[in-house]
Specification:
By secondary structure, this protein is an alpha/beta fold. It is built from 29 helices and 24 strands. The C terminus is likely disordered.
Length: 760
């Protein structure tokens, strides 16, 4: 069969999976199949035979394959099992028995995490039920020490349903777990081991390798060495080092993939160079499969292993497979195995980076021929990967690592040395740990240097730049230009002006939008009033929330909307849930230019030392913090704050207990200041007299999302809802409606209340 036919059909299958994702959740998913059939018909009718040397039936077949892929991906969407444990959620104080499916790791919040195959549940009433399905479990970190896959355990905790994001920057945890067939989670409090760990398994080999590296190189150098060899998906690398590597653009060094496969395959072929091709194929296959089992079945590793198998196959049949064709075939094979990987960012970035290296690294190296060959190659590889992945990175994360190319050039020799010697020491350590540890000790200095380089680059000005997320049309147009430079000779000759146009398309539209945008966004932050105001390039943040909110909600939001400095930071209280996150924001680092607080907080001196202008938010003294916004503390104990955004007035009440409401209404001099268009509070019951005094047209309650620890939801009571409806007041609550944005005198919730969502 013609290789070109396979290439076209592989692209059709990949395209069918990709097109289907755009119609997820719509009422006309069949349109994806119609589009693929139409593209096949267009190819058969419009692309001349002499141009591609492909008959019409090949294009028609491609359309059919693409249409099949749109149905195949839907067929493979995981669904809850008939007796799935998720159908019992949410429940408090349950004990679940089951077997571990993977080795425990450390979660972002510092707890142990693993996947459990649930077998039995014991309810708080004592009733026991047989269940099935997978469960995402988190427990105190000390309780997972020594646990191994296949071990039987019983965990007591609270069963919950993963939730979709409540904020524009939120990670879709529900969809992420759903793609793995997990529809419920358990926040564990106590754990009991029911069986001894298995005597042997891939975990044993992995643990011996890690033990060898850590014994020889120490911590954290040994953990970094293990990550270079086995990837960070199976190695618990310290979170601060992992985060630093990701932020400076060195995430690929920690992801076991093509580099490690090329080293393993090259070594095996060198050892078996005097043997037959059949023996080379067998030895290479065993090595690749073993590496796959050790590192975990991730898209990047599978892609590299499949391409490695393609190289071995070409060796046996005596034909060299073209890299682009091999990459496309590998993508199709992986999507046949798991079509939902088309939504996986790791899968997408891995293939784009590899494609960039295959088709662009050589051309870039030629443009750099004025440099020494080795340096030209060192520069060409990260440049190619960087530009091929840049549009997708901006679309997904909204941030760029300004010194990524420099970081990769400086660390590539260290990564190569660490990977090669790390593999050798790890293999020796499987049989005798002290011997492998001696060799690992030799890598202590290189690994320390690598960590120092990453930390040094992170400390450079503008090392992490929040450029803001780009629109889908920018992504498509950006990749259209990249493909044009690769495939169209006339465009290739004008690569420099087209590269400038490429960058302009990615960055200029967002900058123009931010320069004219005026928006107030109430963050969904568990009963903590947090507001982000963007006013024609100026940024104000009212309250930071706690460390969790700052780390996992605000910082990703700053990336998405392109915020690199906070012009005004305002704290309405010193409580941990209101102000603990300022330190996280300062450490990212996102500079705070001006800081105002209604009460003294511990961070004030630190902010002043970093150059922030610190002032007090004084009673009845309005503070103008953007061109069209001001804030005024109009009462203390309880705090009552008036916010003006353009022509709209807000009244924020951070302590809205009924006794506090009555206390405010008893102050005659305060009543004229209570009237506001939007009343914002923390979800407590409202008395009718307060609503009469404020006379809002809209009410926004910062209410709690589902709490994994106790399953409580602090929502507006039915009595308050009836009062709001009787007064004809539109009301929103952040735990159900998500973040609330105010733009152009219009209030809009992140979530549509009438939405119906699929299981994932």
């Amino acid at each position: 069969m013609n290789v070109l036919f396979l290439f076209i059909w592989s692209l059709a299958f990949i395209g069918g999976c990709g097109v289907r994702t755009f119609f997820e959740g719509t009422s006309f998913p069949w349109l994806a199949a119609v589009i693929m059939l139409g593209l096949g018909a267009i190819g058969a009718g419009l692309i001349p035979f002499r141009l591609m040397m492909v008959n019409r039936w090949v294009w028609l077949m491609a359309g059919l394959i693409g249409a099949f892929a749109t149905f195949y991906i839907q067929f493979r969407v995981p669904q809850p099992l008939p007796n799935d444990i998720s159908k019992l959620a949410p429940l408090n104080q349950v004990t679940i028995r089951g077997e571990l499916l993977d080795s425990p790791m450390t979660s972002g919040s510092g707890r142990g995490k693993f996947t459990l195959a649930a077998r039995e549940i014991k309810l708080s009433s004592g009733e026991q039920k047989s269940v099935e399905g997978k469960l995402y479990v988190t427990t105190p970190l000390t309780q997972v020490t020594g646990l191994r896959p296949s071990q039987s355990i019983a965990i007591t905790g609270n069963l919950y349903l993963p939730q979709p994001p409540n904020n524009p920057s939120g990670f879709d945890f529900k969809a992420f777990l759903g793609r793995s067939g997990i529809f419920a989670g358990l926040s564990g409090k106590s754990l009991k081991v029911l069986s001894d760990p298995p005597i042997f398994g891939d975990w044993w080999i992995r643990n011996r390798i890690v033990r060898t590296h850590v014994t020889g190189a120490g911590m954290p150098e040994g953990a970094l060495l293990s990550s270079l060899v086995l990837g960070n998906r199976t190695i618990d690398l310290p979170s601060d080092i992992k985060q630093t590597f990701i932020e400076v653009g060195l995430a690929a060094a920690l992801a076991a993939s093509g580099f490690q496969v090329s080293i393993i395959l090259g070594t095996v072929l060198a050892i078996t160079s005097d043997n037959s091709n059949r023996l080379k194929f067998i030895a290479g296959t065993i090595s690749l499969v073993g590496f796959l089992l050790l590192t975990g079945v991730s898209p990047s590793v599978l892609r590299a292993v499949v391409m490695g198998m393609g190289t071995l196959t070409g060796l046996v049949i005596g034909r060299q497979i073209r890299p682009v064709v091999g990459l496309t075939l590998a993508a199709m094979i992986l999507l046949i195995i798991q079509p939902l990987w088309i939504k996986d960012l790791g899968f997408q970035l891995s293939f784009l980076a590899t494609l960039g290296l295959v088709v662009s690294a050589g051309a870039i190296a030629k443009k750099l021929e004025w440099l020494p060959p080795l340096l030209a190659t060192l520069l060409a590889v990260p440049i190619a990967a960087y530009f091929w992945t840049l549009p997708l990175q901006l679309y997904a994360f909204g941030k760029i690592s300004a010194y990524s190319i420099l970081a990769n050039v400086l660390t590539t020799p260290l990564v190569s040395l660490g990977t090669i010697v790390g593999i050798v020491s790890g293999l020796l350590g499987i049989f005798f740990v002290p011997l492998g540890a001696v060799i690992s000790w030799l890598l202590t200095a290189p690994m320390s240097l690598m960590i120092a380089i990453a930390n040094g680059i992170r400390s450079l000005p503008g090392a992490i730049t929040n450029a803001g997320s780009i629109a889908l049309w920018q992504v498509l147009l950006g990749y259209g230009i990249i493909l044009g430079i690769w495939l169209v000779p006339r465009v290739k000759k004008l690569w420099l002006p087209f590269s400038v146009i490429f960058l302009m398309i990615l960055f200029i539209p967002g900058a123009i939008t931010r320069s004219s945008l005026f928006q107030a966004l109430v963050i969904s932050s568990d009963r903590t009033p947090v507001m982000l105001i963007q006013d024609q390039g100026k940024v104000a943040l009212i309250n930071s929330g706690d460390q969790q909110i700052a780390n996992f909600t605000l910082v990703p939001l700053f990336q998405k909307v392109g915020i690199n400095q906070i012009d005004w930071a305002i704290a309405t209280g010193s409580e941990r849930n209101i102000s603990a996150g300022w330190q996280v924001i300062k450490d990212k680092p996102i500079p705070i230019k001006n800081f105002a607080s209604s009460v003294p907080i511990s961070l004030t001196d630190s902010l002043a030392d970093s150059g922030a202008s610190v002032t007090a938010l004084k009673l009845n003294q309005p503070l103008e913090f953007t061109n069209q916004s001001q804030i005024e503390l109009i009462n203390q104990s309880p705090n009552l704050i008036r916010i003006q955004t353009a022509d709209t007035s807000w009244l924020l009440m951070t302590d809205a207990k009924p006794t506090s409401q009555k206390q405010l209404l008893n102050q005659a001099q305060l009543l004229p200041k209570l009237k506001a268009k939007i009343f914002w509070w923390t979800g407590e019951d409202l008395i009718p007299e307060l609503l009469e005094a404020v006379q809002p047209t809209t009410a926004i309650a910062s209410t709690s999302s589902q709490n994994k620890a106790n399953q409580n939801k602090v929502t507006i009571s039915a009595d308050t809802i009836s009062k709001l409806k009787a007064a004809n007041i539109d009301f929103y609550q952040t735990n159900t409606d998500g973040a609330i944005s105010w733009t152009n005198n219009q209030v809009q919730a992140l979530k549509d209340r009438d939405d119906t969502e699929s299981p994932i």
